[in-house]
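Still learning. Any example?
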Amino acid sequence: SLRRRSTRHRAAMRTSTASSRVSGPRAAHWRRRTRVRALGSEEGELQRPSPYAGSAGEPALDAPLSLLDAGVDAENLMRMSVDPPGHKSGYVAIVGKPNAGKSTLLNHLVGSKVAIVTRKPQTTRHRILGILSEDEYQLVFVDTPGVIHVKHNQLENVMMSNVKRAMGEADAIVAVVDVASRSPFNGLSSVSMPDGRHLSEGGLPLAIVLNKLDKKLSVDLEQLEAHYEEEFRPSRIFRTCAHTGKGVQEVREWAVEQIPLGPSLYPKDLVSEHPERFFVAEIVREKVFLNYRNEIPYSIQVNIPEFHERAQGKEYILAEIVVERESQKGIVIGAKGAALKKLATSARLDIEDFLGKPVYLEVKVKVKPGWRENADLLDTYGFKNWIGHS
């Protein structure tokens, strides 16, 4: 699980853990969600031994960051240890087509970068949880991969299963539309409930976010809003620019209104349930999207097989970039290794900023033919057994 420590991340953090009794249909779900292990995995969800665990008597290498390390006052932490009466908590799924701005919206909603963002569609592969905690509530936003009708490989099948799972567990849905796209009136044409029903028939509170107002628009916003009002009958329609944060506060306030009464689902100092290692891999993958074109970003997987302290020097991180063909390996490495060196340098700087400490990052490139179609490799890479995956 991720707890913030660096100065940039600390600013948006709330400083409490919470426990409370709950009964009824939400009880089992709450107990399952709050049994979060120190390594960011949940009991019953990750059966195999964790590669992050330390030896007996030693801390795990990828354990959550300490609250005291984050500069949190212990007395204040104790004061906030119990949810007040009337506390609310719930899940809000963020859905939409690829490149609608869902991840950017998530980052602004929680006040921290928990999802990578690029200009390329289908950057998000996983269900990314962003947790926003205040004294009176805890919102768990779930960013999802962009919805596509035609799946070209097993990886995309898993991604679409993650979207359905997120919607099935949500207390409310935020559907994001790119108003600057070529067909903004069809911005939600591929999005439906997990059982195939129309979004308007899902029985959940629905907000439609007309996003990217900072772009040059070829449509009349009043007409666009009237279209979505008539077709989807949402409880609210928002106009936002997630890139600048304009209109995001209103979306956040709406989400708080929709979630039910209940105790905190996670410790209140958590920003996401994923371990540090997950975010380090995502940082490297973001650099691949930013530095390479065509099929390369979509053909790679980033794994972090080693992440540990050394007796002397900086912490050591080994990142493996997996490609499908030898020709792709050559492109990633570049002439005399220049492209890979550029990627590694930019990734290291962001990783150090994220972790709040210097690291030694080694990046290797491996070829695994057809990994996106290989169920065993997808399982090994965490698309089925890691937190947040089907």
Remarks:
- The two ends are 18 Å apart (CA to CA).
- The chain has twelve helices and eleven strands.
